[in-house]
Amino acid sequence: MRRHLIIGRLGPGDRSPVSMRAGEVATRLDLVAGERALDHGIGRAIADLAALGIRPSEIGLDVLILAAHVHAADTRISRGSESQDGWTREIRLSVPVSDVARWSSATSTLSTMLDFLTGDRWEIAFRARPTRFTTIIPTDGEQLIVPPYDDVALFSGGLDSLIGAIDSLVDGKTPLLISHAGEGAVSKSQSDLFDALKAHYRRNSFERLRLWMDFPRDLVRGSTGEDTTRGRSFLFFAAGVFAGSGLARAFTLKVPENGLIAVNVPLDKLRLGALSTRTTHPFYIARWNDLLGILGIAGRVENPYWSKTKGEMVRNCRNRRLLESVAAHSLSCASPSKARWQGFASQHCGYCLPCLIRRAALVAGLSPKTDPTTYTVDNLGARALNTNAAEGVQVRSFQLAARRLRARPALANVLIHKPGPLFDESSTRQAALADVYRRGLAEVETLLAGVRTSPR
What we know:
- This protein is α/β, with parallel strands linked by helices.
- It has helices at 42-51, 58-76, 79-82, 100-104, 107-118, 159-170, 184-200, 232-244, 259-263, 282-295, 310-315, 320-326, 353-366, 390-407, 412-415, 427-447; strands at 3-9, 24-30, 32-33, 37-38, 90-97, 121-128, 151-154, 175-181, 207-212, 251-254, 299-302, 385-386, 453-454.
């Protein structure tokens, strides 16, 4: 086990001292390429927004620079070799920012939200940017034209974000969609869906910011890298806040996610804690809103679909015909590339947790029409699924969880508290979360009726 320190540096002139602690491994994160351009996709994002008439604030840029530190640490520090328990890493960040006092008042909030999100122990310190980088965002006179975007929304390439974009466009909004270009299949899904929306809503001037951010595999000396990426949503949210800070008005960053996944109650005891993703949990979103308040950013993060199941989102989509025609291009699978092991192109496996929720939603929401998605395991009922292999693990867990909840419906009021605190939510909203959990699980139970599982 090793403790890690990531030190972001804005060019060779950034020499402010950062003290080391006993047992720490320090990694330099160079944030500048060439003379002055920001690296790791940040400079490109600034230029892409400028082309759209958007000029982010310096504090907004700080948010994205911080997210680069988080993303580098999360994806390049191995849980297996760098933690005592195979999961929990100890990570310290030293981040150059435009306003040290303002950021320093947010350190407790940041540690809380990152600890919760990734299951690690985070400590963050801020220092002033070097003089040459006091101002980074170009200031070519006044921003005379207010950008037309009245909506900012995450656009992951998944079914929920597709529905969110369609609903927004039908409502007459002009959204700025935010994507992170990651794994090839995910990036293709994002592009295919965006192109389809552009073709259908030709008169709407909505656009997309596509953030490209990656780091060398050997960035952290002695670490093989990490694939769990529990902290990716921090980067995703940060990109939305970064863009929203340049809209010259208060903004809402919409995070479209069905209530079953947002709360993400573990199906069994083995998936407690950070082993279950917390990317859109209400506690995490509340901490983002705390952070924006501390930083003085006039924005708010909201999940407009927290009270709906995925099937209800499909059924109530404001343009069902369009959704039916493009849903197959959306990507929900936790690991679409694993289909290649069986000789297929990247596609939905059909049996991971998000695939099962997707299948249940499309069956419930599109009926009497059928799910247009191609799955590696196309027919879940064709044979008994092996519970000692990936194909049967989540199926069996869903069946057991649904059976338990059907026998004791009131248990939902307790189970929704297991993934994380809900003290930010009113009693009425907590009751609604318990109800959407019951309904969401019932959707999946209907899908799995008659599906057999057994160990082999």
